[in-house]
């Protein structure tokens, strides 16, 4: 915890309690916060004051952020809310348990191509979802992509980068982002969805090669390279990179925006095609407009010198070099001419062979001994009909066989798609004619995905060559949160390749909520009645030492004022009256025949040489045989006067977020300075938040263990 950070401990909108700082950027600082209303941790992004003071900026920021909050995709960091509280502009976002892709790449130097393909596919899916709703990211880079523990990625800061770009120029501070900007962004022009695609290409390039395509000593130098230059192809750095993936990378990074991928969906289709067949070659690189390449240059050489070298060589060619190039040019021309000559000869040979086949062969082998092959493709007959009419087994002229090649097509099953020999050929009677037959449209049976975790269900759908539609969320009393309730189309439907399947995912049971009342100061019975009236569950009573009357509630397990689900268990803590002094009872100078109900003064009727101890509500340093507040027939003098007050025990309420990993119950153990002070062996995890009150004095080490494993450890102050 940063002691100098004034935001730590702040409660925004009486809901979000800021716990700790987890990161910061040029525009904002990100904190971890506890959402007391929904019982979960979230990320709070607080705008820096210089942005928050700009009225126009705030207006646009709110409008854009509210649009981003409408995005719902498993590969996009969710934005829950955008608000202003106590003069603070902030966003409420999903809290991610993971690291940035930049950090991940730094740990592995470079990624293998399969891992790079896996990450890129998810990034492109996120962009496709956002672009379909008119939202452009504008700052795609590994720093804004989170890698989760399960290998999935989430893209952060959608739609927010436009404000940063509007407020800054290509200064040294922009160095982190300028490595990934598109040429049109570098020129300061308008950008669209294709600008995000260029940035994805740079991220893919870096994952595959372990280096950035362009380097420079300033943001301006790097931006100029994006506009005028082309990096080395990835296979020039690492030959093990598949050709198809290299082509996807360079096509995404094409400097001409019109020759680049025109949509995220288009890039996703190529990624999927390559995933299914890593030997796929698209032909993009050979079709791209030639652009000057910049070879790798050590950073020790000044950037301006490196960029001027190619220009110097072309602008001021030496005469000697020119003379050397002339014969080399003639040699190349000769090679080309030779290749053309060879091709011409081969073409003439092919024409001659065809002539001999079509003209000379009939002279040697008269046509009356041969039969002409019909056009079975255009005939419109199904395979079985062709067999009945033309196969030698049925008195026909040909031996009809079906090709072993499996062909799925839109044409009905049995339709003739191809034939060999081709139509019109003259063949001997009984010759074999091979027909390629349609199996009809490919059908895929959708399995029952109910009760699958939604990410496993998505992977299964893609494995079947189907598309995943936009996920829909519903409350369910029977299906666990994040598990699939049903699919559309339903399970066991027959689908065609590429059809879309929509998942309906459970949010868990929908529960009513109540605002927790303040029970402190009530009698135990009144408090129980209030709990049950709100539909909450009375979880029992614990006693603790207090200066309040016996039976009065002094604490409650669920803090007052927060919203809790109906049925939440509430434990009451009531005073045992150990330190209670009735203010209506005054000490009397006259001896009384009745027993006193108040603790007696240590003074007696006889003079004493020992000083008397003053009456105090604080406990004595030595325990009395008769509890304070109980009836006594005789006063019990203190053996010695009190020299200092004892440390006063104080209590605190601790809320613990329970793990949501499938365990129905867990054991919660709490230790204070190594001593076990609380243990519950069967805590129901469906309540999400478990609240307990513990007592102690001074500053002590608090440890929480769940099922015997350390959950958290911190120094806390009692009182």
List keywords for this structure.
719 residues, alpha+beta, 6-stranded antiparallel beta sheet, 19 helices, 29% helix, elongated
Q: How can the largest sheet be summarized?
A: 6 strands, antiparallel
Contiguous helical run count? 19
Low-confidence segments, ≥5 residues, pLDDT <50?
161-175, 287-330, 592-644
Portion in beta strands:
15-25%
Rg value: 40 Å
Number of strands: 31
First-last Cα distance? 20 Å
SS class: alpha+beta
- Could you estimate the helical fraction of the residues in percent? 25-40%
Average pLDDT reading: 78
Question: Which descriptor suits the 3D outline?
Answer: elongated
Strand order of the largest sheet: 1-2-3-4-6-5
Can you give me a brief rundown of this structure?
By secondary structure, the protein is of the alpha+beta class.
